[in-house]
Sequence to fold (696 residues):
Amino acid sequence: MTSTALRAETGVFDTILQSATHRPAPELLQNLRERGRDSFLALGLPNRRQEEWRFTRLDGIGEKIFEPPDVVAASIDISPWRVNDAYLLVFVDGIFSPDVSEVSGLPDGVVVSNLELATASESNVVSENLGGLAGLEGHPFAALNTAIVADGAFIHLPAGMELERPIQLVFVSGSEGRSTISAPRILVVAEPRSRATVVEQHLGDGGASLSCPVSEIVLAEGATLDHIAVQEEEISANHLAVRQIRLAAASRYSAQAVSLGGALARTDIGVILDGEGAVASLDGLCLVGGDQQANTHLTVQHKRPHCNSHQLYKGILAGSSRAVFTGRIIVDQDAQKTDATQSNRNLLLSDGATVHSNPQLEIFADDVRCTHGSTVGRLDEEAVFYLRSRGIARDQAIRLLTLAFAGEVLERLPVEALRERLETVIASRLAEMADNPEGA
Amino acid sequence: MSLLELKNLHVSVDGTEILKGIDLTVNAGEVHAIMGPNGSGKSTLASVLAGREEYEITDGEIIYEGQDLLELDAETRAREGLFLAFQYPVEIPGVSNTYFLRAALNAIRSHRGEDEIDAMDFLALVRDKMKLVKLDESLLKRPVNEGFSGGEKKRNEIFHLAVLEPKLAILDETDSGLDIDALKIVADGVNSLRDPERSFVLITHYQRLLDYIVPDFVHVLIDGRIVRSGGSELALQLEDQGYEWLETEPAQAAGA
Fold:
């Protein structure tokens, strides 16, 4: 192994890796960190000669030195993001903030806690599942996360438990304006026939930070999880997330991913349909302007018969922003009667924005239904004129039509208060963009 | 002062002259029908009045309520009381019919210096007006025109007209594609909206709409020129004789 060459590439992370090694943690996490560190150093940072990273510009990530996380409180007020009624865990730069978290009133048997605590109280479930799904092998930022992980969120739903109130996980990056690195972790283990809603939010606190969250979600037979992931980090921040979900028979996973912030925001999602009758619905929306990049790399693997997967990913781009959507559907030979759909629709609000849409179907079974479609276009000028001819100003017409485009994804969000807040955030972002369509 | 005055209007699209000198005067409360064969420039006239931007005005002027209409953008024209019922109403996925209509009404009210309409008042207004064109209440919540039948789309246009209460309504081939029952509903709706303070310009290929909406004036547009103007009896003559006998007529000044 040419470790010296690779070390040079990852050199800016040396201090971070060192400090992680010295941060006290339960043995389970320590062991995990060692594995992650080895993988990360072996993999090095990705480059654009690698197929998976061809369209991702990692500007500066290999040159900039990020600060290790510190135990500080965030300076931002998270209350506007607070979902009423939700059990709440807050992490600042990946470190748990018990003072602002709130998990009282959980039904017996449900565990919603920080991971460090869970390694002691739920050591079996944690050790069985943590690091089991998120491939340390292939993904450099999953490996980096694992190498420096300090803490994270742990959710365990016992069999048959239907949790009424949502669980909200808030991750604040770049605390007090610092260029920190954070490596939050999420582990959700849903036992048979359990059900819950998880709202995952990534917020910025002013710093040009790097966050590389890794989520692992394991759904047992008949379990149902609604997962809303909202990324609103600073416009100067980097967000490289990895999310892995495994579904057992007759389980359902429904996700809406909304990506608004970040200079570079990339999410790699892997879904394995590993039991008959499992269903995964994956919706996404990104709104980017300026020089922002939003990348989604989605792999859905149908391993068993009679599973459904549906993807609807929409992008709204202004300025000279770039969006990448790679949607891979793999249907194994055993996975007969698969029903898989994929739709990627992009709306360009400026001449300078670009979209790379890459559907990839690998089908090894013969009795399946797989459809995919991809569009990149401008707003329908006839529709804009129709609205104007009824008295609605051009910029308002554009905003209205753009919101309607986003609405197809937003209306699927099962948490109403969050949906309404996102509509407001997106509307005001669109208003800013309307003032400066090529630059916003 | 007349509500609308077209003087020697010449309009081109991509260098081809479509309207070749139109003179037309519409006073408050009048209903004018503009008839003509396909390709005569009828829809171009409607589009130019509503403010579509792909047309080049090469000569002449349009005066609306004493101001130069061509100086106003489409939304300002609408707020000043001009309404175009589209020949092909546009489907707007994701925007409900009521949401759209309320945004439009509030834009017009705000232009007049009025407050936004109260939600309950708006609902009452909408319920009242939809009866005029027998529009099903379910179409209020649906996205604008999406999945509407051809007849529903045209009735929806008249419904918008009824709610927005313009001073000048231009109906661009609102009768096309309608069966006789739908045509009667649309015509009844329009007739109930006739008012001394409201004028209509009906653009149509066929005479049959004018059986139900009796115009004050009929103008025949052929090859970009108004070749004949008259009363409602002119429409009947066209029904009998077609347009051929007029196709060699020299252009004449039209108006009231």
Summary: Chain A touches chain B at residues 380, 382-383, 385-394, 396-397, 400-401, 403-405, 407-408 (CB under 8 Å). The CA atoms of residues 31 and 147 of chain A lie 9 Å apart. The first helix of chain A runs from residue 3 to 10. The two ends of chain A are 45 Å apart (CA to CA).
